[in-house]
Design brief:
Largest sheet: 4 strands, antiparallel
Number of strands: 4
Structural class: alpha+beta
Distance between the termini: 19 Å
Helix content: 10-25%
Order of helices and strands: EHEHHEE
Length: 136
């Protein structure tokens, strides 16, 4: 959600629009997810997208690899969550992703989208988006 000044709403983000955001888009994984019995008995395809916005203090990593928010670690963490055991809800999966992202103190805001791809033949996907600012 954007505020009236056009920033991403991340605390500490420059209101003039200077932001650093790391993306993982449409990562498709197999996952045990859902509350129905048949969902507990087989893996399902899920699509995960994450936007991680850095705090203002960490918003200009330039070419310094030590200062970037590492998307490889983010993908590995998402895979670990997907493989960690059954998850009842897309909301729970998204919340776990947000919690993991906030382990990096440079992260100010996270938006995590989790979609189940094969629930309804007439829908591309169903799921949830969780957006969180760093807990104060």
């Amino acid at each position: 959600m954007r505020d009236s000044l056009g920033s991403g709403g991340a605390p500490g983000a420059d209101r003039c629009g200077d932001r650093y955001t790391v993306l993982v888009r449409e990562l498709v994984l197999m996952c045990s997810i859902g509350v129905r019995r048949h969902e507990r008995e087989r893996l399902q395809r899920v699509r995960v997208s994450v936007e991680i916005t850095a705090s203002a203090a960490a918003s200009h990593p330039g070419e310094d690899r030590r200062r970037v928010i590492n998307y490889e670690k983010t993908v590995a963490t998402i895979r670990e969550i997907a493989e960690s055991g059954h998850i009842d809800l897309c909301e729970g999966f998204a919340q776990r992703i947000c919690d993991a992202c906030f382990l990096d103190p440079r992260v100010a805001h996270v938006s995590a989208t989790v979609e189940k791809l094969d629930v309804f033949p007439e829908a591309e996907s169903v799921g949830a988006i969780i957006e969180r600012d760093r807990p104060g």
